[in-house]
């Protein structure tokens, strides 16, 4: 779904800037409505700029493209336009190169100044609409070999956001339950635009010599339905044996060079990460901005060399602080969705989860100001409550006095369940430019097995980002699965806004869809969408423009073995209008048809093959070429073994052709390898006819990247050796001949230690405190010595004792009078007490049988409790002597027990009744003792 809120804020910021530029630079006073075009980051966009109607009567029109932004304009920037034989002046065709780091919103590109000989001139602003690009990739190890049963493994996956919007993803792990896989970074991960993060999956290798275990990591967008995975990675675990080393500081310097016909460019950086103490770790990323000129800078970005200049994190399992690109979520009512540079802190405070932010704007256009905010989330009996205080100040560098100011106090409550329905609500007191207003938000949702729906209403005076005069939005999403084959979905959304610059803005979208599984491998989708938007400019500009689009689309996807096939068709009716200041309205409408097919197959080590073919046909008045055909064939991840290293190759050929320009063929290739020494080498080459250098020649770019990954200070330099062994005689000390035990895992804070085959492992000498043993890693038949479990002194030698089994069978027997007790032995409690005073409770397996497993060798005294039995019984205590490997069954007799009951004398008073029905009292001789058998 399109994020209308972010797009709106970028549009409003642009409308503030445009009038300021016109005044400052002395450009022509007559300005036409802007010409806008949509373009994704790192793409080429072609647009047609028509000659203004005021100059359409001229025979010759001069044009000049005055650049005003960071978007490059390809081709001629000055020239003449002549009247064609059909009677009109030919339009101007421009090609824009969208920067690879463009964020969602509007970008000011240039002003096209048209002039005629009589002195008349009109400036037409060019606006680039950057849509939301949602692309996330996950990379990690494909295979981990030589693992040992009992090892604790942490798989680190690198998640990169290639899009220009903030991504909040849910982490899902699919693995064998015996691995006990879990994410150490929590169930969610947030990514800034073009940012990256790591997801660490911790797991335990079960006893399975030579087995393979696949681990699949999937990332699901939080605003999507369950199962809508957008990125995934898969790792194979091969169980064998491997030594475990202490964590150290990992250093990763990298450097890249790119060359083209018009110059060279270079960039580099450095990453260092590791523990600073037993419980605190850190990471630091430094990168130099690209140095050079020409198309080489574009080649550096393809190899991942161009990164954020600074990013640092410091934290532990409970708190974390980061500096650099600041990404925080303070909720819709706070009015602040920061995109800047600063510091973010997450920490628990008095039982709540606190998130604090201090940053400065990073939206470009020489803006300045600050973002500050604090949000605390804590549990309440009905759900979760969040309280946030935010302050936003931003000023534009182009238009003095223009900007935004907002202070907000927001209180929200969520996860309130009414049966299967969850609800949330919030209130906010907002101070916008000195005026106070109250905002609110209400949302309900249901996530059932078959029906999932959500609805929300948001009213935020002052706008979602403290700029607009008012904003209101409602949204509805629903999906129902009638069966395993058929599912229907629907969505609707409306946004209204307005301020002094933009009198009104409205956007509405409505869509319905159906999904049907023809077979388990074949799925058919049908979607009908309607979208419309309208913007009326305010003071200084006037006029309005908007568009309406109605589309119906269908796609079919199927799998045949390892092959995947897809086909799609979309029919659209597009209508655009623009109302001038004079009141005249220009309308245009067109029909558009888009068809496409795709084929892909994964050949495992031989790589992956992907082919796509897309044809777009646009009718007259659609503002685009009558037809355009895009074809792409890519072979990626072809892995070849060269010596002890694996070399990965990738190649792609792409053709773009349309009715306005000749066909262009784009060729790309890449290669990468990682040597055993830790050196990572990558290279790429690209020939792109749509990228022209400064001399107008076809762009050819070659780039090389070299990185080194090294670990220093492993084991924190100073270490001491400890040993885990089998204590044969149970004295708690290691005697000559007592063997070590390998594969036993111990934990201390963030450290993990695994004993070698000889039973030894190293720990930091500065470490203080007891190690925590992972009992599941101890081999079957051994147990941690009870003396060690109660020992508070740090031990160098950690004893394990061999275990045995014992079964105690309670049997009812006759007493001296030949009577058998009438009791249920399942209500008895039996335990064994060892020489150290530890008690081992038996497991009642029925029939009066109590099973004791994993008992250390030694002498035990049996103890019982008969308080829950229906009558008194006598169980004789016995002593057991267990040796390593014993499996004893012992019969324990249970007999009735006689008790003495003292009956007090019965007394009678006046008018009383004696024990035999008469009056008086009895004493002395009537007092006697009796043996009672219940």
Report on the architecture of this protein.
With 934 residues, the protein is mainly beta. It is 4% helix and 59% strand. The protein is elongated and about 130 Å long.
Summary, kept brief:
Residues 908-921 have a biased composition (Gly residues). The chain is mostly beta strands.
Topology:
Blueprint: H1 4-25, E1 35-38, E2 44-49, E3 60-67, E4 72-74, E5 78-82, E6 92-97, E7 105-115, E8 121-130, E9 136-139, E10 143-147, E11 152-161, E12 167-175, E13 182-183, E14 188-191, E15 196-204, E16 212-221, E17 229-239, E18 249-260, E19 263-275, E20 281-287, E21 291-292, H2 296-302, E22 310-315, E23 320-326, E24 340-349, E25 352-361, E26 368-380, E27 383-395, E28 403-418, E29 421-432, E30 435-447, E31 451-459, E32 470-481, E33 486-498, E34 502-519, E35 522-537, E36 544-560, E37 563-579, E38 585-602, E39 608-618, E40 627-642, E41 645-658, E42 661-674, E43 679-692, E44 698-708, E45 710-712, E46 719-726, E47 745-748, E48 751-754, E49 760-764, E50 772-773, E51 782-784, H3 786-789, E52 797-812, E53 829-834, E54 839-841, E55 843-846, E56 849-856, E57 858-865, E58 873-875, E59 879-882, E60 887-896, E61 899-902, E62 929-932
Parallel strand pairs: 1-8, 10-17, 46-52, 52-60
Antiparallel strand pairs: 2-6, 3-5, 3-7, 4-6, 7-8, 9-11, 11-15, 12-14, 12-16, 13-15, 16-17, 18-19, 18-44, 18-45, 19-20, 19-21, 20-22, 22-23, 23-24, 24-25, 25-26, 26-27, 27-28, 28-29, 29-30, 30-31, 31-32, 32-33, 33-34, 34-35, 35-36, 36-37, 37-38, 38-39, 39-40, 40-41, 41-42, 42-43, 43-44, 46-49, ...
